[in-house]
Specification:
- The structure holds two protein chains of two kinds.
- In chain A, 30% of the residues lie in helices and 24% in strands.
- Chain A has 13 helices and 19 strands.
- Chain A is globular and about 65 Å long.
- By secondary structure, chain A is α+β, with helices and mostly antiparallel strands.
- Chain A folds into three domains: 218 residues, Uridine Diphospho-n-acetylenolpyruvylglucosamine Reductase, domain 3, CATH 3.30.465; 90 residues, Alpha-Beta Plaits; 82 residues, 2-Layer Sandwich (Alpha-Beta Plaits).
- Chain B is 35% helix and 19% strand.
- The radius of gyration of chain B is 23 Å and the shape is globular.
- Chain B contains 17 helices and 18 strands.
- Classes of the chains: A alpha+beta, B alpha+beta.
- At the A-B interface, strand 7, helix 6, strand 9, helix 8 and strand 19 of A face helix 8, strand 11, helix 9, helix 11 and helix 17 of B.
Chain lengths: 399, 480
């Protein structure tokens, strides 16, 4: 990114170090963890980086209470390993997008960075995004004040929920220094129904049939024609069940009775499949390609996919029952304009996840806000970062 | 008693002019000003506090809400939003110089899509009304506060309401897709829509649970879920609260997530049994109600598993419902718990702190000691799976000393919750009730940060100004 080489990064090992760096900052800063999502959204207009990568370690883990706290720089694999020892997991399945972002060798994503981007995987459809799993945070605002919001208990409505405001704000409102997350048990058994379908319309229909069944589907994705994950080749719809073993067996039988052409995938192969969907590795974008994430009403997905294909050579992955569409293809202003138009038409939202820097700098990477909301955005930003020190321009030009 | 901000003399002095202005915006009988008709609006579910407002406005559209807010903003008039008025924390308590904006006439269901698993409803639709509108197709709206028959979705959004079944399905915040939001200056903003996780700041997240501090929600898009094939409850009674607490931990650690896991202590069991005749074990010190869902076979398997876990803790008795009717009977006492306590005590305060579940035995012991010291009875009922306590403190409202003691007792319980790593409120909100305890949970810098966010939405502090934030350090809401 635009960091000037002569100025070393700041990567303090303590929260107080982060606070001091912000209090002393004479100019805006790039805020990041391990930088695995550096190529996402807009390039930040700042010369120096303040990283949380050295704020590491799990500070509290109470398996009985299903709660974990970790400093922001703790990596996703470290947390997953600690949880696996107690057969627990992060319900929202936050992804490791390094391969998709074209930086497979970069250090793994930090939990602070994932929360700051509010990234969730296939299990999001059960109702819990990563932001919903955040029980509490510690953060430093733009003025260098160390603050807390939330806590470590599962139900908490005390005061304004700054956890949610910080989650998904991409480091523009505060530097997250520690997060406390709600956990879930690893289900006894997981099985996936692989349903052959003709196209997106049939695929979304199969996913909808699963999601409107009483069987508690925890993953509903579709690989379109030409997309391959291991030995699973699109076009297929994928429905995942996770629960106690007897329930999975029973529900799988019921689903198969309704979809006799489907087959069942279990074990490591199924695990790898959902990992590939979570991490969006199936699209394999080329070095000069762009990747977008679109969020729409699931019923709009087939028409949106068709509209995109009509304009450019788009490769897609559908998740969240069709409500989430990952798109990879030509990185051009024309493709981006077509995508923005089609998403607006479908009444949805978009994020440009990956593109060559000049393109990301020149285009809106998320939808524009209307004047009333834009004014609120500026005032909320000023309420947390009045001097504009934190990641200026990362989400929108001039913000 | 809790201090309220000094009424604005100029607003009180211009009452007739303000009423005329409101009547021009909301024609017909939508503006209430006669003292007798204001009476029903002078309090909410926290009836110890009463204050008639300047006026009540009952708009029928988002455009009217926007016009009223713009008018109030231009005239420096304070606003108190209100749904059904069931808040247990005084969230809808009026102020003498404030206009109450009641959303009960905005009660239309605008859109239902089973395909997209969502419903778009106006803010005045009741919580249960949403489920009623979709249950014919086997769907439901998950959060289920005890007041669900009356409480409205707009109020649920503002308080981020929970309920007994949140253990599996989450609270209001986890079940929203979008809102139509009106700012204090009368601007109407669409937040989110029928899809998940819009890019940009999480406006939906900061608005949910904001207790009317940031603006008014007039329409809500909620997720609706296909209901499981069925559900069934069981009951397990134990000889001590410690043992019951250990059983809760063991159930949660087993990997089975019940749909609900409720705890009642001895005084609560007795009060509920006298009221509901649910067949509760009167010799128990603590009792759990555990509900699972799925097909009949799945219910059998899950209940057998939970039964086995409970059996390790030497239960006094266990009763597994064998039919839907038996389940209803088991729930009957729990659902009527507040009313049951109301029958054995003239009045009660319902607390709402949350604690780390491991602290349960310690906290219950301390609450028992406080009960003796204050010489006031307490019945404990709570959502055990998520540590959300509802101690019901019994007192006599006709005796000011009794009320004062009850408030002090409640405050001590909430301080204890924070001390052991919990919080002041799990689902009822801060409102006016816990406002002056905010300093127990947050330091000055943290409160100042929250106030700055509030000011970003409402720079003049016209929206529900006596709630959530202590009045100190803020000249805009200086106390009388």
């Amino acid at each position: 990114m635009s960091a000037v080489l002569e100025v070393p990064d700041m990567a303090p090992g303590t929260e107080e170090g982060i606070a001091t760096a912000l209090r002393n900052a004479a100019a805006p800063l790039v805020i990041e963890g391990n930088g695995s999502k550096r190529g996402m959204l807009r390039p930040v207009q700042a010369g120096r980086t303040l990283s949380t990568r050295n704020l590491t370690g799990i500070t509290l883990y109470r398996p009985q209470e299903m709660v974990i706290s970790a400093r922001a720089g703790t990596t996703l694999p470290e947390i997953e390993a600690a949880l696996a020892e107690h057969r627990q997991m992060l319900v929202p399945e936050p992804p490791d997008l390094r391969a998709m972002m074209g930086v497979p060798e970069a250090p793994p994503p930090t939990i602070g960075g994932l929360v700051a981007a509010n990234l969730s995987g296939p299990r999001r459809i059960t109702g819990f995004a990563l932001r919903d799993a955040v029980l509490g945070i510690r953060f430093v605002n733009g003025e260098g004040e160390v603050l807390r919001s939330g806590g470590r208990v599962h139900k908490n409505v005390t005061g304004l929920d700054l956890c949610k405001l910080l989650a998904g704000s991409h480091g523009t409102l505060g530097v997250i220094t520690e997060v406390t997350l709600k956990l879930g048990p690893v289900p006894e058994r997981m099985a996936t129904l692989v349903v052959p379908v003709s196209d997106e319309a049939a695929g979304v229909a199969a996913l909808t049939a699963g999601l409107t069944s009483p069987y508690g589907i925890t993953g509903a994705a579709m690989l379109p024609a030409g997309i391959v994950a291991g030995r699973v080749e699109g076009p297929v719809a994928l429905l995942r069940l996770e629960d106690v073993a007897a329930s999975v067996a029973y529900r799988m039988e019921r689903l198969r009775a309704a979809m006799p052409e489907a087959r069942v995938l279990e074990g490591m192969e199924a695990q790898r499949l959902w990992r590939a969907i979570r991490d969006v590795t199936v699209l394999q974008p080329g070095a000069n390609e762009a990747v977008w994430r679109l969020s729409v009403r699931p019923s709009q997905a087939p028409a949106l996919a068709a509209a995109l294909r009509a304009v450019f050579q788009a490769r897609m992955l559908l998740d969240w029952g069709g409500g989430l569409i990952w798109v990879a293809g030509e990185a051009s202003e024309e493709a981006h304009a077509a995508l923005m138009g089609a998403t607006r038409q479908a009444g949805g939202s978009f994020t440009l996840f990956r593109a060559p820097e000049p393109l990301r700098a020149a285009l809106p990477v998320i939808p524009e806000e209307g004047p009333a909301l834009a004014a609120l955005s500026r005032r909320v930003k000023a309420a947390l970062d009045p001097a504009g020190r934190l990641n200026p321009g990362r989400m929108r030009a001039g913000s | 008693m809790i201090a309220l901000p000094a009424p604005k003399a100029d607003v009180l002095g211009r009452r007739q002019e303000i009423l005329a202005g409101l009547r021009a915006l909301v024609p017909g009988d939508g503006v209430i000003s006669e003292p007798l008709r204001l009476k029903p609006y002078e309090t909410d579910g926290l009836s110890a506090y009463r204050q008639p407002p300047l006026a009540v406005v009952l708009p029928t559209s988002t455009a009217q809400v926007a016009a009223v807010l713009r008018f109030c903003h231009e005239n420096g008039v304070r606003v108190v939003p209100r749904g059904a008025g069931t808040s247990l924390s005084g969230g809808a308590l009026p102020l003498a110089d404030a206009v109450v904006i009641g959303l009960m006439r905005m009660n239309r269901i605008l859109d239902v899509s089973f395909e997209d698993r969502l419903a778009v409803v106006e803010a005045g639709v009741t919580n249960l009304g949403i489920t009623k509108a979709v249950e014919g197709e086997g769907f439901f709206y998950a959060p289920d506060p005890s007041s669900q028959l009356a409480c409205m979705i707009g109020g649920n959004v503002m308080m981020n309401s929970g309920g007994a079944h949140c253990l599996k399905y989450g609270v209001t915040a986890n079940n929203l897709l979008g809102v139509k939001f009106v700012t204090i200056t009368g601007e109407v903003i669409e937040i989110g829509g029928g899809y998940l996780d819009a890019a940009g700041y999480d406006w939906l997240g900061i608005i949910t649970g904001s207790e009317g501090q940031l603006g008014i929600v007039t329409e809500v898009t909620v997720r609706i879920l296909r209901a499981a094939e069925g559900q069934r409850a069981m009951l397990a009674a134990f000889g001590s609260t410690e043992v019951a607490g250990a059983a809760v931990d063991a159930i949660m650690a087993s990997g089975v997530i019940p749909v609900a896991l409720e705890f009642m202590d001895r005084p609560c069991i007795h009060a509920c049994e006298a009221f509901a005749h649910a067949g509760y074990p009167l010799d128990a010190e603590a009792m759990l109600i555990i509900e699972v869902e799925g097909s009949a076979e799945e219910q059998d398997a899950l209940l057998a598993k939970i039964r086995d876990i409970c059996a390790r803790f030497d239960p006094i008795s266990m009763r597994v419902a064998t039919s839907a009717e038996e389940s209803v009977a088991i729930w009957k006492g729990r659902k009527g718990a507040f009313g049951a306590v109301g029958r054995i005590s003239p009045d009660y305060l319902c607390m709402d702190g949350t604690i780390p579940t491991g602290e349960l035995p310690h906290v219950l012991r301390r609450i028992g000691e406080m009960s003796e010291a204050y010489e006031l009875g307490v019945a404990n009922v709570f959502h055990a799976g998520d540590g959300n306590l509802h101690p019901l403190i019994m007192f006599d409202a006709n005796d000011p000393e009794s009320f004062r003691k009850a408030e002090a007792f409640g405050a001590d319980i909430l301080r204890l919750c924070v001390e052991v790593g919990g919080c002041l409120t799990g689902e009822h909100g801060v409102g006016v009730e816990k406002r002056d305890l905010m300093g127990v949970q947050f330091n000055r810098a943290e409160l100042a940060q929250q106030r700055r966010v509030k000011s970003a939405f409402d720079p003049d502090w016209l929206l529900n100004p006596a709630k959530v934030f202590p009045l100190e350090d803020n000249p805009l809401v200086a106390a009388e």
